Amino acid sequence: MKFDTVIIGGGLSGLICGIRLVQEGQRCAIVSSGQSALHFSSGSFDLMNRLPNGDVVTNPLSSVKSLMAMYPDHPYSKLGVEVFTELAYEAESFLGGIGLSMKGSANKNHYRITPLGTLKPTWLSTLNLAVSDSESSLPWKKVSIFNISGFLDFYPRFLADEFAQLGVKSETFLFSLPDLDHLRRNPSELRATNITRILDKDTNVKELVNIFKKASSDSDAIIFPACLGLKDSNVLEDLQRLVEKPIYMVPTLPPSVIGIHAQQYMHDYFIHLGGVYMLGDTIKKCEIEGDKVKKIYSYNHGDIPFMAKNVVLATGSYFSQGLIASREKIYEPIFDLDVNYMKDRPDWYDRNIFESQNYQSFGVKTTATFNALKQGMPLENLYVSGAILDGFNPIKEGSGAGVSILSALYIANRIIKKEGGI
Question: Rg of the chain's alpha carbons, rounded to an integer?
Answer without folding.
Answer: 22
